[in-house]
Amino acid sequence: MASFDTTHIISLLVPLLPLAGFFGYFLYGDKLSESKVGTLASGWVILSFLLSLVLFGQIPVDGAIQVNYFNWMQAGSFTVPFAFQIDQLSVIMMMLVTGVGSLIHIYSIGYMHGDNGFSRFFAYLNLFIFFMLLLVMANNYVLMFAGWEGVGLCSYLLIGFWYKNPEYSAAANKAFIVNRIGDLFMLYGLYMIFKHFGTFVYSDINGMAQSVFNADTAIIGIITLLLFAGATGKSAQIPLHTWLPDAMAGPTPVSALIHAATMVTAGIYLIIRSNVLFALAPLTNEIIVIIGLATTLVAGMIALKQNDIKKVLAYSTVSQLGLMFFALGVGAYAAAFFHLLTHAFFKALLFLGAGSVIHGMHGEQDIRKMGGLSGKMKYTHITFLIAVIAIIALPPLSGFFSKDYILASVFGKSPVLWFFGALSGLLTAFYMMRLYLLVFKGKSRMPEADAAKIHESPSVMLMPLYVLAGLSALGGFMNIPSIFGGSQWLENFLKPVVSLSELHIDHGTEWILMGISTVLVLGIVFWTYNMYVKKNDVPESDAVLATMPFANFLNRKFYFDEFYDAVFSQPLLKFSTFIQKWIETSIVDKVTDSFGMLSFFLSGQVRKLQNGHISFYLFAMVLGILGILTIFILL
Amino acid sequence: MAAALFYALSLICIVSSLIMIFHKNTMYSVLFLLVTFFSVAGLYVTLNAQFLAIVHIIVYAGAIMVLFLYVIMFLNMSHIINFQKSKAIKIAATATGLMFLLVIIAALSSATYNGNVTAGHEIGLASTLGHIIFNEFLIPFEVSSILFLSAMVGVVIFNKKDLIDE
Amino acid sequence: MGVLLTLLIPFISAILILLAGKNTSQKLAVMSTAASVVVTGILTAMYFKDGAVIAGVDWPWVSSMGIRFHLEADGVSLLLLLISNVVALISIYVSLGDNYKNVHQYYALILMMQAFMNGVFVAQDLILYYIFWELVLIPAYFLLLGWGRHDKIRSVTLKFFLYTFLGSLLMLVGIIWLGSYNGTPDFSLNAIYGLSLTTNTQIAVFAAFMIAYAIKTPFFPFHSWMADTYTAAPAPVTILFSGVMSKMALYSIFRFVLPVVPDAIATYGPFVMQLAAFSVLYASLMALAQKDIKRMFAYVSMAHVGLIVAALMINNIEGVHGALMFMAVHAIVTSGLFFTAQILFRMKGTHDIYSFGGIRQYMPVFAGLYMVVLFASIGLPLTNGFIGEFMILTALLKANTLAMVLASISIVIGAVYMLLTYRKVMLGQDNTSGNFSDLQHNDKFLFLSIAFVIIFMGIYSTWITQLCDNTVLNIFQP
Amino acid sequence: MNETLITPDLVMAVPLEHYIAVSAILFSIGIIGVLMRRNLIVMFLSIELMLNSVNLLAVAFSIYHNDSNAQAFVFFIMVVAAAEIAVGLAMLVMIYRNIRTIDIDALKQLKW
Q1: CATH code for the domain defined by D8-106
Q2: Neighboring chain A residues of C318 at a CB cutoff of 8 Å
Q3: B135 and chain D: CB distance < 8 Å anywhere?
Q4: ipTM of the predicted structure?
């Protein structure tokens, strides 16, 4: 075991501090006041964020910090170390997790005010931060998987946070189980990795990838496909995306932290982390492109019809994640990661803004019943607007840079793909504008009494909004493309982890593409403005959407839930009952019991010989003697 | 003459025992068994076993038969008893008995024994037997008296009415 | 002598309890099991310190038959002793919360069972082993018959007894065959290890042993005694059954099958492996269909032991280590599960899942601890359930893909039934009235300890591997 | 009493096989009697007949083999037979008292 220098201790403290917060709940959760609990819980994460900053400063230019603690599992040739690898990729993720995490902690102090489970909520959030840090800091797939499942657990706990509501706990179950299906494939991938690599450590695997690939080309393809299947579960890609919209049952800060900014991006992190393997699996990459594209378009279309403010954002998240996978599939790892970061900022902001709206409206989530909130919730409105502009990718906010980067990379691969990517951007623009306009603009569509009660959120909730708004606005400057004379800092920083994407297109084309998409987005903005604000007869004007072909199809979210219910859930339950009824009781038990019954039957038959008739016994005796004598004679 | 005597006695013996088992009246059965006993005693005499012949008559004809008769009188059963087994069982019983006979005959005919041993003159005499019983078999002899005693006690206990009723 | 102590302490305590009567029985039982745990702990510490096998006693017994009274504990035996005594302690602790009739007899029988089970794990002579193996059945029988809860308890008990007993008879045939294989009877373990058997003999012995173990473990299709027995037995006894009694069979596979009949395993091991893996899937599906929570946990336990059998059949170092790890894991986790069922039972007097609901709001501590056990059972990382499951399935993929796939589907199904049940029982609104005070004193302490061990083993588990390492290496590199 | 009341010639006039045959026949008749009658008393009588046939055989062998031990055995057999009959008849009386019949087929309680 390596000696413990400061780096060891710091990198251990980063995840342990939030964990301490979790265990602290058992010590002080019931005893301290709300504000103290909230401050403490946020404090752990903020400390952790600061330590991440320290580690950020310590990263060597061309390598990673490896910190080994002890062996987690060990048997023969099978070893899983409990060790961290802090490199460029993970340190940014750490900062993202702890940074956004602390903002959301602070926000929650206001949002969860007065809730029965106030301190429990913070304990869960702290635990989540711990697992997320474990996920991104691990130096091997198994430890990463521990974090991976752990965040799933926290997601389960937080979605079902208001456990008295059976629908919420059902949503929590669904989230966990669907994730588990993905995790099962991921586990297969892990087993395959051990079978062919004999280790789980990233650096070893990356070193051996080429030789394993040379030995059998199919293996890397299978492994990457399985890992990707795991990623579809966690990152809510088709066909495992159905849990994420339901997951909105949790408190809104949870949606912002887990289901927008951090956990759901774990799949993208995983693929970037394994980019050496994925680079060797062209077939997998094509599947990723198809799945990513399908997800972004399908989710975008479903989002058009949603009326719950959080559901719209949830499908938007699915759609954006699909876009990231799309980018990963074409090999634009840095672009995907860039979008991951900017998306984390503006989507967290959107959710927190939505939370602020819900908070202000005392729990109302239906956008048809909102409208004209811009006057009543000024600060929320401004920050929300910034986020919307960022997500629909208007320059110069962060979303513009990252989405443009993706689209530019994709165009280098194939213009057709670019078209679909741009289409997804237009869908985004439409539903986000619809959401924004219905909520903040136009006339108020709620009863006067309710309207009067609407209030701006407290400053403890607004402060994180400001910070995130700033990040959403300026986050794009992390990676200004060369076309604007930027240095592409992020991409260069990630170089030790991710090879530079080679899909560069010339600047002229890039300008044209950028122009086309921006103009189209602006067009959508005006169209929606006309539709939802000018006409003033919302939501009836949504009839336009209703007359669209497949409207019902969209409304029912492509019947995914119904399909899964009919094809998997119900048959599984029926099948188990069938087995219980027909195999277990009718065959297995019967066969076993039949041995007992057979002996009962035989003894019953033999017992008839002992019928109590003396004359019968006498006959039996004589015949027996006769038989014995006969045998003696014959012998 | 002796052979004729043997055959006559055997015939009486067999016939009377057959009547014994087939007769419906229990009383007659007992009486025909008595005939059988006497003819068996006669056979003992032809075998020069006078002492056993006498004991036989005393024990069987004297004691056992009297017991049977007492019981019959006691149970008041001198009438004809009508319960009979079914024909099939009777035939089966007869067949079984005949098969038994066949098997025994077969067994004995296949056995070899030294037939040329001269018969002893005096082994059947009371004095000879008395010597044997009181020398070689003294303890069994005494034990048999205990057997009688216990049989007596047993019988008394069996039929003590108040013990049963309790 | 330390090894002998692990047998004598519970046995003598059992007699003392019988003599002392009802009033002191609880105290004596707790003290006795605690003492056993301490003794085993000291032995384990000694083993870690010296690395040498803990010699026990080696007395001649039936010399003409080559039978010796030979006890000895190596690493694996120590692990199983630890499991057995810790589970016995848990079982006694669980018992404290209930009132049993003839309480002194009850505790005496539990301790007696513990003593005999300890004997199984340290016997170095096959006949001695067999005697302990069967002796376990006697207290088990009376515990089930006397304190079981089932409307047909007699037939359940009879089925349990006859089924497991008849299975063991085949094993006796195998033992005698092995012991007299060389002409002069010698049943010592070393002699058995030294035999060079023909392939056909190996197959016959393998079949004879495996049927006994398949019934005791149990796995599909030899499990039909299990669900009724586990459900009918009082919770502490169920904990002993699933926590230790099933381990007897698993340990025996490790000790008496793997090293003795390698050729037979090479031929038929994959079949047994796939059968056991199928048993995992089957039991998981069965668990999904149950409405009785204790019965469901019984099938969960069956799914887990199926996984262990599959791992043992891999017959290599990684697989065996995974199996041994999972034995320790399973002992703790099922204890926790059945304890949960018992706590629920105390509330409402039933195990029916549908008669519960909304308990979490009254019993937050219980809800949290139940959740720890639940997630350990479905193998969430950083709980011990993950360690064993992951080690086993990794090794299983290398050995047999079909078996791995069959066994691993339970990862998803496990999550389904566990979470559905948790939701039904703990979440939502309270739908009935009942006695809902949160865990108190003993129960809280015990449950916290179980949860602590679950998480501790989930993070730091290599000590179990180290404990078993020498023994495992001896088997695979003689 | 004259010791030559029955001479050895007289004894040897009939071959041993004939004695065997007679006792075998008697024994078989006894068996038939036991099997075919329902009357307990007749069954007892048949048993006596079988005992007698055995005694006869024993005596015959004893004479033809010049061995007087067999006759001692016969003596003891008679003793045992007498005791047996005494006890047996006592039981018979008791059975009769209980079930008011001596029909063997009425005794069906001889099973568990």
Answers
A1: 1.10.287.3510
A2: 75-78
A3: no
A4: 0.75
